[in-house]
Structure formats: structure tokens, C-alpha cells
């Protein structure tokens, strides 16, 4: 299969590039400390959040936050152009439009009431609201159907009690996208519902979690008698598991593939220019082979990426393909970090701020964070199960 852009797609790619070069602060991409694919190495503080929000509003003003939504809800572009946009923005090391635009919005489009669409989709498209995902719990991660946070119906409201963990950005974001159990007596997959919860609602407590990289991006969040209007129920009560499956497919397409290419280019430049202890890295045969191996894996990732975009452009649902892409790209995150640490040797242990730290200490940070890539949005084991069951028609057990 050969992927080649049309003139319109090439023009759009140039438009996105020109916009990013104009709007991004000098050195933004080179100074980024987010390891591609990782969940925990990106700084989530008030300053970074402010800069990103300003940029996202400019993106939204161009119609790119709702880039491939139906036209009646603000979308004007094809799935291929959406993929081009995501590839270029990640290459320039900026977060894509957040979970609201990429996951919550499409899920509301599929399952939300007309009232919910009218209330939330315009605000998401204008980058006025954002969501954090309240899925995982202390005893429900990969086995998400084991979640125990409860929502009890009381008149025109639901009352939520329970705990969520690994809430990325919950300390900064205004709304939660919450999965709860609304029927404790139903089979595990049939008693779950999805809600939108305003984080200013009384009864919500946030505690920060500092991750292995020393970054506060995660949180644990407690819900104590949090009252949510019925109108913020997504779709139908007790059907949330099926909405979650669709939402996770959307999330698995958010791979930030351009970040791999950009960081790899920076790393290759370092290999070409550096001679630790007087021996040029570029002349070391083992180094050359490891670098070439990562280059091949990145090219394979791009093929999976464009194949998935092509399927979406043809109206096909890349259910298995989303898992293949997610599995390959997140395992690549780990392989790249392993290779970089081995090639750098002792210098790979120098962290940000050290005088001789290669790439400003990005590599050891990535080495600590890369394992998170294989866990978020479904572990590698879960992705292999999906590929086996949905793609290869193999038995569940």
C-alpha cells in the first residue's frame, strides 16, 4: 500500500507547519522533556498549562480542535488531514487538542443526547472546556470492569462516591469524564455508566501524586456524595462499558507519532557529533546497528499510522488496527529508551540540569517514563488480547 498526499493534503500540511513555526516559542521542540509515548514525563504545571491553553484556543479558532467532526458540529477536514495535523503537532512537540476534542467529543457525537451535543460540542470545539479521565481505581486498572466507584440515582441527580487514581491533570482541569457503577447487581460489564462531572462540585478532594520522573501530573481524586445532574449522564444508564470501549479506541489513536521522529532526529544528530573518550559514536558498529533498528521501527510505526488514517477515511472502523498501532508505538517507546541508554553509557544517567547531560537529560527521563506508555489506554497484554480475539478470531481463553 502506498500513501501519498493529494495537493490539498500537502497544502494543509504546510499550513499547519507555518502556523506552528509562527506561534511556538523559540526552542520549544528542542527543550521539551516529554518522552514520546510516555504519560509521566510532560510537565503539567500552571505555566505549561497556560501556554498550552493559549495555543489550543488559537488552534480552535482555525477549526482544528474539531478537525474531523461532522460538518454540522464544526468539522471541515478529512481523517487523513486529521492524521496530518496530529503528526505535525506532535513533531513540533506540542500536546494535541486535549481529551475533550479527541475522545470526549467524538464519544458524545456517537452516544450523547441532542441536548448534550448542543451544550458541550460547541464549547469543546472552541477549546473552552477540557476533561480528565476518571477511569482507573486502586483495584481497577487494566481490568476496568472491576471499578467500584458508585453512583446512586436520587430524583434528577446521581450521587457519586468512590476513589479514582492516576488522574492526569485533575488539579488543573475543570471537568471529569467519570466511569462509575450504577447497578452493583448487574454483570460486571452491564452496570457501568459514564458521567461528566464539574470539578467545582462540593465533595471532590484532589491529592497530588509525584511520579517516578519527579513530576506532578497524576492525582488521586475522592468523590464524597458528589451530586451530578441527570443531564450529564452520557447516553443510557448502565451502557457505559460499551461507550468506554469506543472511547478507548479513540484514545489509542492519539499516539503522538511525530514526537518519535523529532526526538530520534535529535538523538541521531548527537550520535553524529559526539566522541566520548575520543571515539566517535557514529563509527561504532554496534551503535550504528541499534540506531538503524530504531529507524526501521519508526518507519513501521508510520505505516501502521497512515493505514489507520486511510481506513477511517474509507468509513472503516480500525478496531484491531488501533490496538496494533497502540501496541507497536508504545513498545517502540520502551525500545528507543533502552537503546538510547545503552548507547549513551554513563552519560545516559545525567539528568536535566547536569552540564554534560545529552539532550538536556531527556533520555534518563524517558527511560523512567517509557514503561507508562505500555500501560495507559490498555496495557500491551490487553492490546494483544484484543488483536487475538477481535482480529484473529481466537478464543478468549
Provide structural commentary.
Helix content is 46%, strand content 13%. Helix 9 (285-313) runs antiparallel to helix 10. The mean pLDDT is 90. It has helices spanning 7-23, 28-31, 46-61, 79-91, 99-111, 114-125, 240-252, 257-273, 285-313, 319-344, 362-373, 380-391; strands spanning 131-134, 150-154, 157-164, 175-181, 192-198, 204-210, 216-229. Strand 2 and strand 3 form a beta hairpin. It is built from 12 helices and 7 strands. The protein has 397 residues and is α+β, with helices and mostly antiparallel strands. The protein folds into 3 domains: 7-125, Acyl-CoA dehydrogenase/oxidase, N-terminal domain (Butyryl-Coa Dehydrogenase, subunit A, domain 1), CATH 1.10.540; 131-238, Butyryl-CoA Dehydrogenase, subunit A, domain 2; 249-391, Butyryl-CoA Dehydrogenase, subunit A, domain 3 (Up-down Bundle), CATH 1.20.140. The strands form 2 sheets. A 4-stranded antiparallel β-sheet has the order 2-3-7-6, with no helix packed on it. A 3-stranded mixed β-sheet has the order 1-4-5.
Could you provide a short overview of the structure?
This protein is α+β, with helices and mostly antiparallel strands and 397 residues long. The chain is 46% helix and 13% strand.
Domains counted in the coordinates: how many? Answer: 3
Order of the strands making up the biggest sheet: 2-3-7-6
Return the CATH topology of the largest domain. Answer: Butyryl-CoA Dehydrogenase, subunit A, domain 3
- Name of the CATH architecture of the largest domain: Up-down Bundle
Element order, helices and strands?
HHHHHHEEEEEEEHHHHHH
Major sheet description: 4 strands, antiparallel
Q: Please state the CA-atom Rg, rounded to the nearest Å.
A: 21 Å
Structural class: alpha+beta
CATH class wording of the largest domain: Mainly Alpha
- Overall mean confidence score, pLDDT: 90
Fourth-level CATH superfamily of the largest domain:
Butyryl-CoA Dehydrogenase, subunit A, domain 3
- Secondary structure tally: strands: 7
Amino acid at each position: 500500500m502506498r500513501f501519498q498526499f493529494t495537493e490539498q493534503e500537502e497544502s494543509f500540511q504546510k499550513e499547519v507547519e507555518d502556523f506552528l513555526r509562527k506561534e511556538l516559542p523559540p526552542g520549544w521542540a528542542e527543550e521539551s522533556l516529554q518522552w514520546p509515548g510516555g504519560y509521566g514525563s510532560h510537565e503539567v504545571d500552571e505555566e505549561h498549562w497556560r501556554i498550552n491553553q493559549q495555543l489550543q484556543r488559537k488552534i480552535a479558532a482555525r477549526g482544528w480542535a474539531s478537525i474531523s467532526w461532522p460538518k454540522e458540529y464544526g468539522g471541515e477536514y478529512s481523517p487523513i488531514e486529521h492524521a496530518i495535523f496530529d503528526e505535525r503537532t506532535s513533531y513540533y512537540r506540542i500536546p494535541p487538542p486535549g481529551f475533550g476534542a479527541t475522545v470526549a467529543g467524538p464519544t458524545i457525537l456517537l452516544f450523547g443526547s441532542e441536548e448534550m451535543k448542543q451544550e458541550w460540542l460547541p464549547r469543546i470545539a472552541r477549546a473552552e472546556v477540557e476533561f480528565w479521565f476518571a477511569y482507573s481505581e486502586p483495584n481497577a486498572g487494566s481490568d476496568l470492569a472491576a471499578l467500584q466507584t458508585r453512583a446512586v440515582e436520587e430524583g434528577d441527580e446521581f450521587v457519586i462516591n468512590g476513589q479514582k487514581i492516576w488522574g492526569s491533570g485533575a488539579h488543573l482541569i475543570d471537568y471529569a469524564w467519570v466511569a462509575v457503577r450504577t447497578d452493583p447487581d448487574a454483570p460486571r460489564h452491564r452496570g457501568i455508566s459514564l458521567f461528566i462531572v464539574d470539578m467545582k462540585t462540593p465533595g471532590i478532594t484532589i491529592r497530588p501524586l509525584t511520579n517516578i520522573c519527579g513530576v506532578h501530573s497524576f492525582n488521586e481524586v475522592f468523590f464524597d456524595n458528589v451530586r451530578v445532574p441527570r443531564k450529564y449522564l452520557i447516553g443510557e444508564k448502565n451502557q457505559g462499558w460499551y461507550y468506554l470501549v469506543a472511547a478507548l479506541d479513540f484514545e489509542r489513536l492519539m499516539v503522538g507519532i511525530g514526537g518519535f521522529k523529532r526526538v530520534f532526529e535529535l538523538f541521531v544528530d548527537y550520535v553524529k557529533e559526539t566522541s566520548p573518550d575520543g571515539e566517535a559514536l557514529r563509527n561504532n558498529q554496534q551503535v550504528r546497528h541499534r540506531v538503524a533498528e530504531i529507524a526501521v521501527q519508526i518507519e513501521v510505526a508510520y505505516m501502521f499510522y497512515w493505514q489507520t488514517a486511510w481506513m477511517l477515511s474509507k468509513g472503516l472502523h480500525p478496531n484491531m488496527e488501533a490496538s496494533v498501532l497502540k501496541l507497536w508505538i508504545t513498545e517502540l517507546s520502551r525500545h528507543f529508551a533502552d537503546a538510547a541508554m545503552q548507547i549513551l553509557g554513563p552519560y545516559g544517567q545525567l539528568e536535566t540540569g547536569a552540564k554534560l547531560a545529552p539532550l538536556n537529560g531527556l533520555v534518563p527521563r524517558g527511560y523512567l517514563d517509557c514503561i507508562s506508555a505500555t500501560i495507559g489506554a490498555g496495557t500491551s497484554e490487553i492490546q494483544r488480547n484484543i488483536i487475538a480475539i477481535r482480529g484473529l478470531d481466537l478464543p478468549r481463553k
